[in-house]
Specification:
The complex is a heterodimer. Chain A has no helices and 11 strands. Chain A is mainly β. Chain B is mostly beta strands. The N and C termini of chain B lie far apart (40 Å). The chains are: A mainly beta, B mainly beta. The A-B interface holds A 31, 33, 35, 40-45, 48, 50, 56, 58-59, 90, 92, 97, 99-106 and B 8, 30-31, 33, 35, 41-45, 48, 87, 89, 91, 96-104.
C-alpha cells in the first residue's frame, strides 16, 4: 500500500531534550516536506527536500533540522525543543513538480 | 510576500451547493491545489488547477482565474461527511518550490 508513515504518533517531552520524528514513504517520491499545524494558522512548511541530499528552508525552519540521506526517509530533528514547538506535525511527499502531496498521519508533539 | 486568503468558516445545508474561495498573492505562481482535512485526520488531496477554468471530479469542482489570482472549490450535493476543513495551497516557483497553504476554511453542514 502506498503510504507515508510517521513515528511516533504522539510524543510528550521536556524542554531541551533532543528528539527525532521519523518519516518514510514507499512511493519513490522525490519531494518531501515537513509541516506544522497550529489552530488558526493552517499548515506551515518547516523544511522541504527536492531530492536526496537537497534540503531547503520553508517558512518556519527555526529550531528544526532535517536530513535526506535516502530517498524514502526524511527525519525531522528538534535539537533543543521548546514549548512553542508544541504542535501537530505532518510529513508529506509528492513526485517532483507535482502538487498532489500525500500526507502522513501526523505526530502530536507536546513540549513541557 | 506571498499569501493566500480564504474564509475561516462557511455553513451550508445538506444537499445544497457551497463555494469556498481562495485569493492568492505570489510572485511565481504555478498552480492552485485544494486539500480536505477531517478532524483528527491528515490532509488529503482533492484537486489541482494550473490553467484557467473549471476542473470537475465527481461532486467536487475547482476553478481558477490566473488573471484575478483567484480560485474556488465547489462542493455539490453536500453530505454530512463533507464537514471538514478545506485548504488551498500554491507552489511558489519564485521561492524554490516552497509550498504555501491558506489558513483553512471550516465547513459546517446543517441537516
Amino acid at each position: 500500500e502506498a503510504q507515508v508513515t510517521q513515528n511516533p504518533r504522539y510524543l510528550i517531552t521536556v524542554t531541551g531534550k533532543k528528539l527525532t520524528v521519523t518519516c518514510s514513504q514507499n512511493m519513490n517520491h522525490e519531494y518531501m516536506s515537513w509541516y506544522r499545524q497550529d489552530p488558526g494558522l493552517g499548515l506551515r512548511q518547516i523544511y522541504y527536500s527536492m531530492n536526496v541530499e537537497v534540503t531547503d528552508k520553508g517558512d518556519v525552519p527555526e529550531g528544526y533540522k532535517v536530513s535526506r540521506k535516502e530517498k524514502r526517509n526524511f527525519p525531522l530533528i528538534l535539537e533543543s525543543p521548546s514549548p512553542n514547538q508544541t504542535s501537530l506535525y505532518f510529513c508529506a511527499s509528492s513526485p517532483r513538480r507535482s502538487d498532489e502531496q500525500y500526507f502522513g498521519p501526523g505526530t502530536r508533539l507536546t513540549v513541557t | 510576500g506571498q499569501s493566500l486568503e480564504q474564509p475561516s468558516e462557511v455553513t451550508a445545508v445538506e444537499g445544497a451547493i457551497v463555494q469556498i474561495n481562495c485569493t492568492y498573492q505570489t510572485s511565481g505562481f504555478y498552480g492552485l491545489s485544494w486539500y480536505q482535512q477531517h478532524d483528527g485526520g491528515a490532509p488529503t488531496f482533492l484537486s489541482y488547477n494550473a490553467l484557467d477554468g473549471l476542473e470537475e471530479t465527481g461532486r467536487f469542482s475547482s476553478f481558477l482565474s490566473r488573471s484575478d489570482s483567484y480560485g474556488y472549490l465547489l462542493l455539490q450535493e453536500l453530505q454530512m461527511k463533507d464537514s471538514a476543513s478545506y485548504f488551498c495551497a500554491v507552489r511558489d516557483l519564485s521561492r524554490d518550490d516552497k509550498i504555501i497553504f491558506g489558513k483553512g476554511t471550516r465547513l459546517h453542514i446543517l441537516p
